[in-house]
Amino acid sequence: MHSELVVYHIPVCPFSQRLEILLELKGKRDTVRFSVVDITRPRDPALLELSRGSTALPIMKTAQGVLKESLVILRYLDELFRETPVARAAPYERAVESMLIAMEGDFTGAGYRFVMNQDRDRRSACCEAMIAQYRRLNDFLEWQNPTGTYLFDRFGLAETVFTPLFMRFWFLDYYEDFDVAALGLERVARWRDACLTHPAAQQVSKEEIVKLYYDYAMGAGNGALLPGRKISSFTFEPRWQGRPWPPRAKYGLAATDSELGLASS
Ligand SMILES: N[C@@H](CCC(=O)N[C@@H](CS)C(=O)NCC(=O)O)C(=O)O
After folding, report:
1. How many other C-beta atoms lie within 10 A of the C-beta of residue 4?
2. Structural domains counted in the chain
3. Most Cβ neighbours (<10 Å): which of 18, 44, 90, 240?
4. What's the Cα-to-Cα distance from 235 to each of 68, 232, 252, rounded to whole Å?
């Protein structure tokens, strides 16, 4: 029994979704309790004590101590429940998988810089940087498995790491008209499509991402408030399901709380 495992997470956080996907793939979703943290409110001092003052989530409490960093927690859970491994078992394949996973930081950075950019003159540089990242992934997959869909024969650890980012980058489709399919990078497009539709990875939807990340598209990350606004787009109440789709124009006028369905007046 591992009933003592608790993940503290922000529900729409891509790094936490990795853990949910991994557990889903292993049929172990119920062995870990997910405790929800509201990023728009001051952090609970008890949680800050657990993390020794750092605010980045997810963190996971185990019987032995606290673990941080999604990639570390993924490997820990994969090894803890070893009957259905998600990571490759053979040393060489594991190394190939790790090479792809090592690209996730630059990929993530390019996507978040692009969505948060507020300077119209920097838009094309941000866009080029994002394309360069997709090109790099495309080259890697062409190199390792040109005719396949996934990196290997199934949705594995690299897919678990990247899928939540492919989903977050729906915000680039919406706010930046950035269309991955139009890049002509067929190998990475095939990988991304299979990742997006995999049954173990359906924890969030495009509508939820687009609505919650409106403030990122206007330059405010991590639940921060934009000038003139009282409520973050990351708020739990009102729920995203009942709010209208936000305006797509991110370099124009910023929407108000009421236009975003965040306030009644
Ligand atoms: N490298 C970390 C990144 C975690 C991270 O940036 N989490 C974001 C939420 S998506 C967060 O907690 N932001 C709030 C903060 O850092 O205070 C990981 O992979 O776990």
Report:
1. 11
2. 3
3. 18
4. 24, 5, 23
Spatial separation of the C-alpha atoms in residues 79 and 67, rounded to whole Å: 14
Cα–Cα dist 192/179, whole Å = 12
Q: How far is the CA of 78 from the centre of ligand 1 (A)?
A: 21
pLDDT digit string (tens) for 121-154?
999 999 999 999 999 999 999 999 999 999 999 9
CATH of the domain at 106: 1.20.1050.10
CA distance 161 to 16: 10
Strand order in the sheet with 66-68: 33-36, 6-9, 59-61, 66-68
Q: How far apart are CA 229 and CA 181, in angstroms?
A: 35
**C-alpha of 142 from chain center:** 24
DSSP E strands, the chain: 6-9, 33-36, 59-61, 66-68
Q: What is the pTM of this model?
A: 0.96
What is the residue range of 251's domain? 206-265
Contacts of 61 (CB under 8 A, 6+ apart): 4, 5, 6, 8, 50
Q: CA-to-CA distance for 6 and 34, rounded, in angstroms?
A: 6
- Quick check: is 175 in a domain? no
Q: Using omega within 30 degrees of 0 as the cis cutoff, is the peptide bond preceding 247 cis?
A: no
Question: Is 49 within the bounds of a domain?
Answer: yes
Atom number in ligand 1 closest to CA 58? 20
List pLDDT tens digits, range 170-187.
999 999 999 999 999 999
* Residue 84 Cα to ligand 1 middle (Å): 27
The verdict on the CB of residue 70 being under 6 Å from ligand 1 is yes
User: Does residue 154 belong to any structural domain of this protein?
Assistant: yes
